[in-house]
Amino acid sequence: MKFYSTNNKDLRVSFKEAVFNSMPLDKGLYMPELIPKLPQSFLNHIEKYSLTEIAYEVASALLKDEIPADDLKALVEEAANFDAPAVSLNSNTFVLELFHGPSLAFKDFGARFMSRVMGYFLKDGEQLLDVLVATSGDTGGAVALGFLGVANTRVTILYPKGKVSPIQEQQLTTLGQNIRAIEIDGTFDDCQALVKQAFADEELNKKFRLTSANSINISRLIPQTFYYFNTYAQLKGKGFKEIVFSVPSGNFGNIGAGLLAYKMGLPVKQFIAATNVNDTVPRFLETGVYETRPSVQTYANAMDVGAPSNWVRIMDLFKQDTAALKALVSAYRFTDEETLAGIKEIDDKFNYVACPHTAIAYLAVEKYRKETGYNGASVFLSTAHACKFPDIFPPELAAKIEIPASVRELEGKAKKADELGVDFEGFKNWLTKN
Fold first, then answer.
1. Range of the domain at 315
2. Pick from 312, 320, 329, 247: which is nearest to 31 by CA?
3. pLDDT reading at 149 higher than 90
């Protein structure tokens, strides 16, 4: 399987090159040259397969001939070695818990797979691989833990000052070893812009071997398809034949992976893009005008993205056909006040404590039900453990949250992070000197 740039379909590179270069020089994003359909015989019996068995089938279809079968199977088994249960809240409402990995966020799927793939391709004696990543909250922690101790790699994480939760910041700044953090006096969009500028800078690329760990990297997108197929397997085993997925959406990699899974044959009735007030995509689907805006800080900080990078991939999947896209994807936005009300409603109805991103996904699927009368199976994605957002919850809800041992181990560890502004020359100078 070769991969092309969304800005130049005549450009074809191997999976290895797409992983290490992350972004083509034309500033597009890599996509597989064809979308393989999974065999119907596999989908007909998918409920009999485990998560890692499903993950291998999906990865094998997308990465045909790029990694030998036995090696790919080992990579998948090591990367996806934790559960992703679709927990039943009532007869037709499920919450997909994607926070059972080491960083307590859905991005563990992508980060662990990517780090294992890069480690697999790296050879002894090769130039040090410098991994740059911008985070609005959860990406940085997943990447840090995914790459911690991986030989011949160095990770530099940029995060917006004062805009991540204390636990998220601890995951970014206390690990040491090959993990470095920079606190940027700006927004996530500023962090993302600095990373993209670094990839486009000729001088830096001559000096360093740069790659990205953000969802612009195709190796982050592919493993996120695994849990969509696995969710279908779980619900098919309960007798459901169609599903609506509601996805908390910021940089649009998560829902992009779901749409890729759909193109590979996953039976889905509808996808719902659930956003906070950073609503570039809902506005586009309403007006037909794609207009980015500076991001606004909200309680759902991992979704505070004003210019979602992965939207170009989604439009590419649908060959720029907005009408076809709108037939499959609905979008809703919610304020902080509505998010808090959603958290309370989920607890009142189901005795379940949800993080703010999860609450937004719940609100979106409930709004979809009311507008359409849909009464089938709906799955809203829980993208992070509630403990990562301690300041959001009133005391009575906070008391219900069980703090994982991995979080308690971070308490008292010293923060280590450099501080920079949003100017690229300052960041370039830091990279050069460090």
1. 69-100+220-401
2. 312
3. no
Q: At what angle do helices 424-433 and 188-200 cross, to 10 degrees?
A: 60
- Structure token pair of residue 421: 């502004």
pTM for the model: 0.90
**What residue type is 330 in one-letter code?**
S
- The DSSP line for 134-150 is E-SSHHHHHHHHHHTT-
Residues 339-380 have pLDDT tens digits of 999 999 999 999 999 999 999 999 999 999 999 999 999 999
Burial class (CB in 10 A: 0-12, 13-18, 19+), 367: middle
Q: Where are the alpha helices (DSSP H) in 184-298?
A: 188-200, 202-207, 218-236, 253-263, 280-287
What is the total count of domains within the chain? Answer: 1
**CA-wise closest residue to 138 among 112, 181, 171, 177:** 171
**Which domain CATH number covers 357?**
3.40.50.1100
Do the Cβ atoms of 141 and 171 come closer than 8 Å?
Answer: yes
Residue 90 lies in a domain: yes
% residues pLDDT > 70 (the chain): 100
Is position 269 within any domain? yes
Tell me if 123 is assigned to some domain: no
pLDDT at site 285: 95
